[in-house]
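Q: What would this chain look like folded?
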Amino acid sequence: MRQPAGGNNRSYTISVQVQAGSEAEAAQMQEALQSFIAHFTVAEMKSAAHKLKSAANRKMIKTFL
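A: My prediction, written as structure tokens:
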């Protein structure tokens, strides 16, 4: 997990609710999300969440992925 220069961050468990076809698919989503978000700071995630409110931005990101 990415840590700031001070390195004082601890791990916390958060809960994210997803719609999946099965427990296995939900577990895969959790693993993918964990891997993905480990690369970003809270500020970067907040900025991305704000940008995802736009349908055009969502479409662009889906195309990129």
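The two ends are 22 Å apart (CA to CA).
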